[in-house]
Amino acid sequence: MNPGAQPSDDAAVQPLRSDAERNRERIIAAGRTVFRRDGLNASMASVARGAGVGIATILRHFPAKDELVAAVFTDRMDAYADAVAVALEDPDPWQGFAAFIETACAMQAADHGFADVLTTTFPSAKALEQRRNEACEAVVQLIDRAKATGRLREDFAPSDLVLLHMANAGVVGATGEAAPDAWRRVVALLIQSFEAPARGPLPAPPEHAALYKAMHRAGPAGIPAPEPRKST
Amino acid sequence: MNPGAQPSDDAAVQPLRSDAERNRERIIAAGRTVFRRDGLNASMASVARGAGVGIATILRHFPAKDELVAAVFTDRMDAYADAVAVALEDPDPWQGFAAFIETACAMQAADHGFADVLTTTFPSAKALEQRRNEACEAVVQLIDRAKATGRLREDFAPSDLVLLHMANAGVVGATGEAAPDAWRRVVALLIQSFEAPARGPLPAPPEHAALYKAMHRAGPAGIPAPEPRKST
DNA sequence: TAGCAATCGGATTGCCCTATCCATTTTCGG
DNA sequence: CCGAAAATGGATAGGGCAATCCGATTGCTA
After folding, report:
1. Residues 31-90 in B contacting A (C-alpha not used; CB under 8 Å)
2. Claim to verify: residue B46 and residue B151 sit in the same structural domain
3. Any chain A CB within 8 A of the CB of B210?
4. DSSP assignments along A102-158, one per residue
5. Global confidence as pTM
6. Which residues contact B151 (CB under 8 A, 6 or more apart)?
7. Are both B48 and B114 inside the same structural domain?
8. Do A148 and A109 share a structural domain?
9. In this predicted model, what pLDDT tens digit does every residue of A89-98 receive, in sequence order?
10. Domain of A32?
11. Strand C bases within 7 angstroms of protein beta carbons
């Protein structure tokens, strides 16, 4: 009996027991539901309740909340990337660009958790961040293509999409169920402002690094920013 | 000794002792600072620390958080109303309108608490809400005046200003100190989209009642929305 | 089928929040 | 200057959250 055998790392650490695997799926499903409804600051406990498992079970599978978030939203990020891909195939680049923005913002409206995800980075969630980066690169193409047709203003910056998502998150977060379509109007206005010719100059877009840092910090309302600690 | 005397309601309940009055002012000042920095969900305890008083003292003066918020932000709301008034005196109505929006959004950026206040109603805070209503009425005039010149699109609705503030709150909340000027770009874009001629139709604005309800609900992140309670 | 180890989940700890209680301190009128 | 009433603020109750521990349970394998 070579019980330990040699640590065969071949299959990584996949040999989950069947019930463990089942619970894992339940937890992710519950997280999907709960985060969609309550945003990212929903408590782990509420996810546990939704999944019908104990709190400890969740924390075993996902030691940090980030990991649960990543597991839940990686496929949403896929859908986001898909939306960019679809947009890139639109014969009318501007049309594709505008439609993509609506689709993306609709995703935020339909899922408060995802609205937060799009304005926050989770450095530890490799898969999620990789999808995000892929989507970002495709978005840059989408932007360039739309600019090439002359219908997207020249000074549009990729970072403007992040700002758009932050603004939209603000709208969907504030209006919630009470006015579930209010975001459409804001987004429509913004899209019109993206259209060339520009009606005026714009302040410079934020530094890439600054925006990245902003997405790190307090993103949505997820990390409550631990009380700046008076030096008194 | 007519200890009770007759309940002379003449001077309301003003006879505060000198130290009480002093502390009240300190608390409001501390609230101004703390809310500006941390937004409305700053804790009462942090305000107490900032004021150098006990927690109980704050809760005596302001039994509910709303009341402290109202006491702190009524004068900011005055400044907001003043900004509208100034805008109304601009010889160029469109210029006044656009400048007002920038000023108002700058106020949000400079004070995270006020950013929240502009997207939330505090029904119990009569003074605050009255100022808000006055400002709103003036804003309607501002809008009408700007439309009359033909430079503001006809389909602009007063509620769009609320949406603007929600969007801006999202941007300033997400970017925070990391990109403190990012909001300017978003606001500039939106202002350009407000300019006539409209580049396209817009989805209908949200019902007034719906938006009001939205401002009631969870506004910023102030009232954590008490966990929708699964009916299971 | 039996035993072992992986897994589960309630109870618990530690932290932060709002709100209340009461012994102590401070103000102010006589 | 003194005493009563007002005001204070630390201690404390009550609730929520993230995270940990450990006895009970379950799946797996020999």
Report:
1. 37-38, 46, 49-50
2. no
3. yes
4. HHHHHHHHH-HHHHHHTT---TT-HHHHHHHHHHHHHHHHHHHHHHHTT-B-TT--T
5. 0.90
6. B93, B94, B195, B196
7. no
8. yes
9. 999 999 999 9
10. 18-63
11. 6-12, 16-22, 26-28
Series of mean pLDDT values for 10-residue runs along chain B (232 residues) = 37 68 95 96 94 94 92 96 97 98 98 96 91 97 98 98 98 95 98 98 97 76 38 30
On whether the CB atoms of residues A155 and A201 are closer than 8 A, the answer is yes
Q: CB distance A189–B170 less than 8 Å?
A: no
| Dist CA B35 CA B199 (whole Å) | 39
- Asked if A70 and A128 count as a contact pair (C-beta separation under 8 A), the reply is yes
**Maximum CA extent, chain A:** 77
D3 C1' to B55 CA distance, Å: 28
Q: CA of B13 and C1' of D8: distance in angstroms?
A: 19
Q: Both tokens of residue A186?
A: 């804001």
A229 inside domain: no
In the block, tokens 């006015």 appear at A179
The DSSP secondary-structure symbol of B204 reads P
